[in-house]
Write a structure and sequence with these properties.
Elements lengths: L1 E9 L2 E6 L2 E9 L2 H11 L3 E6 H6 L5 H11 L3 E4 L5 H9 L4 E4 L1 H5 L1 H10 L4 E7 L4 E4 L4 E6 H11 L3 E6 L11 H10 L4 E3 L6 H9 L9 E4 L1 H4 L5 H10 L17 H32 L5 H33 L1
Parallel strand pairs: 1-4, 1-12, 4-5, 5-6, 6-7, 7-10, 10-11, 11-12
Antiparallel strand pairs: 1-2, 2-3, 7-8, 8-9
Helix pairs in contact: 1-3, 7-8, 12-13
Length: about 325
């Protein structure tokens, strides 16, 4: 399994994000190219660079910097972020990018992705962020696509995708363990390389990803970043851990996460929606509290009413879930 290191670039600097939120970006380094060189010296196999300005705002101010990084890295560089047109994908390929990553476009403009895969075999990678019920989230986790992991994998495999990056939408990589279920679905569904793109909390999580074996298939790689910059482990430690891991043999137990039924996926999705509603309620409550502390009393109650609205919606969702559980218990 290969170790890819993520470098997020925002306004020319490398940054760390929490849950993908640009408003909480933490500056790390004013020289992303030097950071890339440092990580390569520690043993990174490849670089996964994400242009956050292009992804979030369609602003391509970082592209010249990324072109330099591609030229100077000395290892393959995979580029993600804001690749929404054939022209931009081709420009990056011609600049020397090892592969170009497309996410939202794989859902919203499949004809374009099919044509790119056909014209540039081995160069187009599909990034899929799946919720716990396997619905694909797009536009930085902000939109529910109505499409599900397995069907999109099949479509993009047929299109000729070079590989798949699979991550868990909404997961905090420093707190929550990787959800092996969606990775297992990807390994079962497509023959192309599958790369775990959601990060890991620690080296134990890395070991679990390495141990995955689904119908004789294993993960092709893992992308790490925030956990490294947060000090959980170094690239050198991760690489050494991977090199020291004993090879799998037929006598070793095979880690295969259970297949989740449609009913359980729907239940997981309902609880995910409940969590999102409660998250929004909590966010408005924090803003309301700050307005009151700042003496801005006209704004505080407005956010308080928003809290009430979200809590009311959460109650309705809970009532629906309670009825569903009661009905299921009667059937059983």
């Amino acid at each position: 399994m290969e170790l890819l290191v993520r470098i997020n670039i925002l306004d020319g600097r490398s940054v760390r994000l929490r849950r993908g939120d640009l408003n909480e970006a933490i500056p790390l380094d004013n020289d992303p190219i030097a950071r890339a060189h440092s990580w390569i010296l520690q043993g990174a196999d490849k670089i996964h660079v994400v242009d956050l300005d292009a992804a979030a705002h369609g602003d391509y101010r970082n592209r010249a910097l990324i072109d330099r990084l591609i030229a100077e890295a000395g290892v393959p560089v995979q580029v993600a972020g804001g690749v929404r047109s054939p022209a931009e994908a081709v420009r990056l390929i011609e600049a020397g990018a090892w592969r170009v990553v497309m996410g939202t476009a794989a859902i919203e403009d499949q004809n374009m992705v099919w044509e790119l895969c056909r014209d540039h075999p081995g160069k187009i990678v599909i990034s899929l962020d799946a919720r716990v019920d396997e619905e694909i989230a797009t536009r930085g986790w902000g939109t529910n696509s109505g499409r599900y992991l397995e069907e999109v994998l099949v479509e993009m495999s047929s299109a000729g995708a070079a590989a798949f990056l699979v991550a868990e939408a909404g997961r905090d990589a420093l707190v929550e363990p990787p959800y092996l279920g969606i990775l297992a679905v990807a390994l079962r569904t497509v023959a192309e390389p599958v790369i775990a793109a959601g990060g890991v909390r620690n080296l134990d999580d890395l070991g679990k990803l390495m141990a995955m074996d689904v119908d004789g298939r294993s993960l092709a790689g893992v992308i790490v970043g925030r956990e490294v910059t947060h000090g959980r482990f170094t690239i050198e430690e991760a690489k050494q851990y991977m090199l020291d891991a004993p090879p799998r043999s037929g006598d070793q137990p095979v880690l295969v996460p259970p297949v989740v039924s449609t009913q359980l996926r729907e239940a997981a999705g309902a609880y995910q929606r409940l969590a999102e509603v409660l998250d929004r309620a909590a966010a408005h409550a924090r803003v309301a509290a700050q307005h009151f502390l700042d003496g801005e009393t006209p704004h505080g109650p407005a956010h308080g009413l928003a809290v009430a609205g979200h809590v009311s919606k959460a109650r309705r969702l809970l009532d629906d879930l309670a009825e569903e559980h009661a009905g299921r218990s009667e059937v059983e």
